Amino acid sequence: GAVVSQHPSRVICKSGTSVKIECRSLDFQATTMFWYRQFPKQSLMLMATSNEGSKATYEQGVEKDKFLINHASLTLSTLTVTSAHPEDSSFYICSAIGQPNTEAFFGQGTRLTVV
Amino acid sequence: AQSVAQPEDQVNVAEGNPLTVKCTYSVSGNPYLFWYVQYPNRGLQFLLKYITGDNLVKGSYGFEAEFNKSQTSFHLKKPSALVSDSALYFCAVSNNTNAGKSTFGDGTTLTVKP
What we know:
The structure holds two protein chains of two kinds. By secondary structure, chain A is mostly beta strands. Chain A has strands spanning 4-7, 10-13, 19-25, 32-38, 44-51, 57-58, 67-73, 76-81, 90-97, 105-106, 110-114. In chain A, strand 5 and strand 6 (57-58) form a beta hairpin. In chain B, a hairpin with a 5-residue loop joins strand 7 (56-58) and strand 8. The mean pLDDT of chain B is 94. At the A-B interface, strand 5, strand 9 and strand 10 of A face strand 5, strand 6 and strand 11 of B.
């Protein structure tokens, strides 16, 4: 099956700093990538959808200036958490879908801890 | 809008007994249905999917699920549970017009006791 790699798997940063998470499709071209957030013992909530070469579409309630998404190539999307605060601590998961395809493939997730 | 309901937060079964984790969905168009498993501090592992074809879908680790269009359900089953099956299970739905944009259920914690 298709492989999606997410990096880093775990990151700790100080409040006020920014952190970048990468999502790569290793063996297919991802026309669309999705970013999810998961709080402890909760479900995955879609944050945004990014299409290669265009601006991301954010779900209601997600601050686009805080969670910057870039999808500059068909194999890479990045999520940058700007001016991180402890409440941004969470598990972030990306998924990617190519064409033609019927399902998205998930990365391993990134555990972000803001101290 | 699409949605998924997993009515049970927790399912407990004894090892060797059959298990069922329930899922119902609501979506426009043709449903694409998925089950994933998540172990603590890990990402999602794909178990199985229904896109089209046979209503009974067989997946990884002996799991299977049956698509029931009239009941809008996609329950996950396994004939004989293992202790190692203990984990958090998510049902997800998307559709043929927006494949990949999945909506997840709240998850069901499965505990298999020896």
